[in-house]
Amino acid sequence: MRPFIEIENLKYVYPSFIPPHAGGQRGGGGQIVALRGVNLTIEQGEFVALIGPNGSGKSTLARHLNALLLPTAGAVWIDGLRTSDAHNVWAVRQKVGMVFQNPDNQIVATTVEEDVAFGPENMGLPADEIRHRVDDALAAVGLLDYRQYPPQMLSGGQKQLVAIAGALAARPSCIVFDEPTSMLDPVGRRQVLDTIRRLNAEEGITVLLITHSMSEAAMAQRVLVMEAGRMVMDGPPAIVFERGARLRALGLDLPPIVDIAQRLQAWGLPLPQGVLTVQDMVDALC
Amino acid sequence: MLIQVENLTHIYNQGTPFERVALREVNLEIEAGERIGILGPTGSGKSTLVQHLAGLLKPTAGRVLLEGTPIHSKGATARKLRLQVGLAFQYPEDQIFEQTVFREVAFGPRNLGLDEAEVAARVNWALEMVGLDPVAVAQRMPFTLSGGEMRRVALASILAMRPRVLILDEPTAGQDPQGRRALLDKVGAWQRETNMTLIVVSHALEDLARLVERVIALREGRVVADGPTRQVLSDVKLLRAIGLDVPQPVALLQALRQAGKEVRVDRFLPAEAASEIARVWGLRGSVT
Amino acid sequence: MSALPIGMYVPGNSILHRLDPRVKMGATLVLMMIPFAVHGLWGYVALSTFVVTAVLLSGVPLGALLRTLRTVFWIAFLMFFLYLFTTPGEPLLALGSIAITRQGLLAAVAQIYRLCLLVTVASLLTFTTSPIHLTHGLEAMLSPLERARLPVRELAMVLTIALRFVPTLQEEIDKIAKAQRARGADFRTGGPLRRARNLVPIFVPIFVSAFRRADELATAMDARGFRSALHRTRMRKLRLGSLDLLATLIVMGLVLTVIWLG
User: Fold this and answer.
1) How far is A6 from chain C (nearest CA, A)?
2) Which subunits sit against C, judged by 3+ Cβ pairs under 8 A?
């Protein structure tokens, strides 16, 4: 079987306007090369984190996965469908949902349930089916009691859960999260991360999580690192985070526990490989 | 005493179905030159409190004194007083409006009524303080800068007013790890150079650990903790109660302690925690 | 957010909340026109009884209603004296060349009554009808115009999104205004021209942010498979129930009573 996501030598050049989300690459006004030949495959059901400094191309890559952007060169296949074929667009957008950074700027309706219904309404489904999907999606993120709420009465974390429910209502196989927690407080962050983890483990949803938080990246089964439009690392968190010096050179951090472990190892304390969590560390030390 | 908060209560939308009590009889004293962190979950009253410190809200009850004068009262004296408090809201780059970086940073100093030579000197100084080269950026349009640079321009526009009190609300929100560290280092340097009073609102305990000496925790509009950073940030019970994540190094040390190891738990930076473990495990070369 | 927007939806589950928006909008229109058919005391009594009952049934806090009424205080004040002094008729009190007439007094009271009724009825609609129902009702009532090529569904969508962003923009304006005040901006002094210029530090950031929001929202809508309003189906279908029928009959009864009472 083909992998769920296949990206082959993907290149993307922004036309000569300023891309609103290209972070550190803004400026000048000329053409901006955002992706310089990315190859990547992701299997159905994987939980993948994508890290990299601002302007490294993470968001641009994410926007290729549901045909919001189409390759300048190379190709992207979602479940065997090539995104650059015009007649695949709607199927691709149904298969891959997206959740963005700013919870306020992705809610279109004035109540929670109407917003979650937006995707299925776009698919032209009958009213009963939409109702059914909206209820399922709200139940999956634990917001059934808030269905009638106006968005401005929700916390940031709850708004992000609405956005996740909105993506879920289209019954996607994969959801791409573009820095979903960076504008949230710790409570909201936990709500969102717990939900993402649960959707992956229980519903088998393929997850691509873009984040600046190394602790969040450490939750994934696989970590991708981008720099200047290229994929520079790809592996399980234990392996990727072993290369602390390289990550620091990229302007990234280590998860605190990994950081502590590496310092202790440097001072001669024998620790097993792949220490990521407090529990791993306690087991190794005691 | 620089700032005194006396029985401060704030109620939004009083007398409507949307009434919400944001602060309940808060009392605080802040000395000149202190570095203070403010912690608390969303809705705890943090932003309301800092807006009061800057004289931007009218208390429902109680008052805020800056050097003994109520900061919210009417008239020129109080206005002058308010301008000694600089407040950078979350995502301060959102407030940028001028056509050039120079004019943006000059907005505050001009409002102070300074002459143009002094304004120019302050703009240059402030841009240098935030790590931007005045010659390179002064005449650029702010909107052509990167997100991180825009944030620094916005902060410079506040620094250029030379406030005696600088309040930063989530200064590193949305920045990548390198941008975060660079910004924190800068803030520390400004504080040392100007000896201003620094108040930082943040969920990022690590940021606070690096910057401040005293932490005030709020919950449901009340002060629930006020003490030295080390003490408040390693109070696992308190942090959990106000919905914050226990810093992982503290969680680790706590777990080791429970497993019977004699480690101190108030070490929240990875380097500090590593040294502490190394000390107890008797590793060589670990003295930092 | 420092002040509550006038006429904001108050969530609830009263009979009025549960009525079909089309019925409520129709009834509101009727009630706004009906005072012009009322001439005698008993007509006013019938109408007032009806409106007071509706207010009580809605469960809307009276304070919120009074706050709304307060916004038209000055208009009411002016209207009162205009009618009081300019209506010719049987003089009650003469102050030099100006005379207060019996007719003038009655007309002035009647005008105030009509104005208050208008405001009460209109805010009762917005207090008890969520924006989503309001736009939905509007869309349904305007749908015959689709045959005349009016893009009713697109308009309804635009209206929904606009309503969705009102509170967000309000918060943002509040934040930017405070941020600029903290930098010494002054919005209160100076002549009109100067004051207008002083608002630049608020309006520029608001516009910039509105464009960014619009851009991000459009991307999010694309990502969720939005094509055009014509491809879409709706989850909620408006259906008239027995309660709606009853309400319609009651309003019709009121109209007939008022006309009969004259």
Assistant:
1) 19
2) A, B
Number of domains in chain C: 2
- Is A255 within 8 Å of B248 when comparing Cβ atoms? yes
Shared domain check, C62 and C124: yes
Burial of B226 (0-12, 13-18, 19+ CB in 10 A): middle
* Residue C159 within any structural domain of the chain: yes
Burial readout C225-237 (b: 16 or more C-beta within 10 A, e: otherwise): bbeebeebbebbe
Contact between A269 and B283 using a beta-carbon 8 Å cutoff:
yes
Q: How confident is the model at residue B287 (pLDDT cuts 50, 70, 90)?
A: low
Q: Which of A123, A127, A152 sits opposite C234 (nearest CB)?
A: A127
* Gap between the Cα atoms of C141 and C146, Å rounded: 11
Chain C contact present for A167, CB below 8 A? yes
Tell me the residue range of the domain where C171 lies.
151-231
Top pLDDT among A17 and A113 is at A113
Would you identify the CATH topology of the domain B3-228? Rossmann fold (3.40.50)
Residue C205 placed within a domain:
yes
Chain A interface disruption, residue of B252, B261, B262, B287, most A CBs within 10 A = B252
Q: A5-254 falls under which CATH superfamily?
A: P-loop containing nucleotide triphosphate hydrolases (3.40.50.300)
Residues of A in contact with C227 (CB under 8 A): 90, 122
Q: Do A119 and C130 touch (CB under 8 A)?
A: no
Q: Do C9 and A150 touch (CB under 8 A)?
A: yes
Residues in C touching A93 (Cβ below 8 Å):
222-225
From C156's Cα to the closest Cα of chain A, the distance in A is 11
Q: What pLDDT is attached to residue A153? A: 87
CA distance A284 to chain C (A): 45
Nearest residue to A164 (alpha-carbon basis) of A156, A78, A122? A156
> Between residues 113 and 172 of chain B, which touch chain C (CB distance below 8 Å)?
143, 157-158, 161
ipTM score of complex: 0.90
Q: Residue B243: how many CB atoms within 10 A of its CB? A: 18
The ranges assigned to domains in chain A are: 5-254
Residues B172, B170: Cα–Cα separation, whole Å: 6
Sheet holding B69-70, edge to edge: B20-30, B3-12, B61-66, B69-70
Under an 8 A CB cutoff, do C182 and B158 touch?
A: yes
- As given in the structure block, the two tokens for residue A170 are 């289209």
B284–A24: do the CB atoms touch at under 8 Å?
no
Residue C1 inside a domain? The answer is no
Q: Each residue of A66-109: pLDDT tens digit? A: 999 999 999 999 999 999 999 999 999 999 999 999 999 999 99
Is residue C5 domain-resident? Answer: no
Higher pLDDT, B76 or C244: C244
C247 and C192 share one domain: no
Q: Are residues C112 and C172 in the same domain?
A: no
Closest CB from C164, C217, C235 relative to A131 = C235
Same domain, C27 and C114: yes
Chains within contact range of chain B (3+ C-beta pairs < 8 Å): A, C
Tell me the shortest Cα–Cα distance from A31 to chain B, in angstroms.
14
